[in-house]
Amino acid sequence: MKPAPDFSVILDVFRRNGEPCRVPFFELFADDEIMEEVMGYKLAKVEEDSDRYFDQLVGFYDEMGYDYVPFYQAPRFPTPDYIHGEDTATYRRESRKWMNEKGGPIKTMKDLQESDWPKPEEAVDFDLFRKLGDHLPEGMKVVGGASGGPFEHSSFLMGVENLSMAVYEDPELVNTLNEKIGNVLVGAAKIISSMECVGAYCFGDDLGYKTSTIFSPRHLRRLVFPWYKEIASVAHANGKPFVLHSCGNLTTVMDDIIDAGVNAKHSFEDQIMPVPEVKRRWGKRISILGGIDVDFLCHASVEQVRSRTLETLEQCAPGGGYALGTGNTVANYIPVKNYLAMLEAGNEFNSR
Hints:
By secondary structure, the chain is α/β, with parallel strands linked by helices. The protein has helices at residues 7-15, 32-39, 50-64, 109-114, 126-135, 150-158, 160-169, 171-193, 217-223, 225-237, 254-259, 275-282, 294-299, 302-316, 336-350, and strands spanning 68-73, 82-85, 96-99, 141-146, 198-204, 242-245, 264-266, 287-289, 322-323.
């Protein structure tokens, strides 16, 4: 039996306000193909029929037992270079795209100066957040924001290889680009986190690989974490927590992330550190979200998922500050039966 939505439950998790009445569910988002497979309908396009899309979006997250609806809008930065290829996932889309690691639209200061950059108040379609708020049932809020963080956008626009070299060879370009991106992200956060329908501010900013951060902690401390601190301050000034999704091995910078004011951290992988160990190590200083490993969810049986989920909850739920979910996102290559088994195990645990 799924509970009625109650955002205060997951808000207590974000703020580490003791042990909540139940362990809520958290995802950065679920892929459209997963939602369509679960619900049995084709999702509308938000840009074509926003009312229908929001009804469907809210319907999925409400039906699955979440206390919020995730929603993000990409800032209107210059368009990155994408590499397109075939999607071989279980629930396929027409094609899959990846960022071009070797380059992007910004190569020189001239490229940066001649590109169109949005004003913060024009960075995204803010009215879509308000409209989504009109579709929420009692008890639900929006968790989201302007998608992508300062590191991701810099690496998207320059390509991570070029960015890595430019940090040393053209620091003025990197600093100027970083400043443009950061100011837009802070401005967008001010507007979105001030909305009544938004319960927490959140974005993804993948900083690491399996073994380490992509950039050295020294560069992240100069280029990235000061923006986290500003965005956290903006969210907190509006009474909202700041939730960060970031992949990779961030062991060397977790203290920096916590010190920047991030309230909750999402994205964990078994090969880096199983989520019970993450909770033991940092759970008294920052909330821990998700952690049921995506690779495991792709290959395990339903019973294995149930067992693993219950074991994780037994270790992570005590003391609060934990929400159940995948280690990354509900990607379209995760079998739906395993995703549902994870949620069902969560409801089983909560009913004890």
